[in-house]
Write a structure and sequence with these properties.
This is DUF7455 domain-containing protein. It is built from two helices and three strands. A hairpin with a 2-residue loop joins strand 1 and strand 2. It has a domain of 42 residues. It binds zinc ion (ZN). Zinc ion (ZN) binds next to helix 1.
Length: 74
């Protein structure tokens, strides 16, 4: 499901993250997907924020669904 097809940066909506997507750092449900030149990283909301400063400069796409966390709890 996570297939890199094009080298060009994509600005269209990427597929939504699901409960099967896990944070690469802690294994919690992922809400942030970072597309890099050589692949993708998944992060939970916590680690997404933690690594955003470092990774934003090299990421070709930053997909953040962490806003859904507050919606789900409402
Ligand atoms: Zn995490």
């Amino acid at each position: 499901m996570t297939q890199i097809t094009e080298s060009a940066p994509s600005v269209v909506d990427a597929p939504a993250l699901t409960a099967a997507d896990r944070c690469d750092s802690c294994g919690a449900q992922a809400y942030v997907r970072v597309t890099l030149a050589n692949g993708e990283l998944m992060f939970c909301a916590h680690h997404g924020k933690k690594y955003q400063e470092k990774l934003a400069a090299v990421a070709s796409n930053w997909h953040d669904e962490s806003a859904r966390l507050s919606e789900a709890r409402a």
